[in-house]
UniProtKB/TrEMBL annotation:
Residues 15-108 form the Histidine kinase domain. Coiled coil: none annotated. Keywords: ATP-binding, Kinase, Nucleotide-binding, Phosphoprotein, Transferase, Two-component regulatory system. One of its GO terms (molecular function) is ATP binding. Pfam families: HATPase_c (PF02518). It comes from the Bacteria. The keyword Nucleotide-binding applies. InterPro entries: HATPase_C_sf, HATPase_dom, His_kinase_dom, Sig_transdc_His_kin-like_C. This is histidine kinase. CDD domains: HATPase.
Length: 120
């Protein structure tokens, strides 16, 4: 639900999914060295749409994986919202994906799965 001038307006599913793709890939792009590679793949079958984002960056430490969807949490504690985001990107991704009946994983490849029929 989006709020503007005191009025609630529902964002379209396609707008929400564009936001998911942007947010799910922004951390990967920021954390992958300039000589590294980022790959985004999308496909659909009869039951679900799937987006994967993989990279050649350092990855997420296994001990950090349980926290990446926590609001305001950052793996790099030296970052602030002025130097690298507010710690809300992945929590928003999880919220939007789950609102559409889907799932999201943080380990590489980062994977979003959404039931077909809800993705448009």
């Amino acid at each position: 639900m989006l709020w503007a001038n005191g009025f609630a307006a529902r964002a379209s599913a396609s707008d929400q999914l564009r936001s998911v793709l942007r947010k799910a890939s922004s951390n990967v792009l920021r954390d992958t060295p300039t000589t590294g590679e980022v790959a985004v793949h999308a496909f659909a079958d009869d039951s679900e749409a799937v987006i994967t984002v993989s990279d050649t960056g350092p990855g997420i430490a296994p001990g950090d994986l349980p926290h990446v969807f926590d609001r305001f949490w950052r793996a790099d504690r030296s970052r602030t919202r002025h130097t690298g985001g507010g710690g809300l990107g992945l929590p928003i991704v999880r919220h939007l994906v789950e609102a559409h009946g889907g799932t999201v994983t943080a380990q590489s490849p980062r994977t979003v799965r959404i039931p077909r029929g809800l993705e448009a």
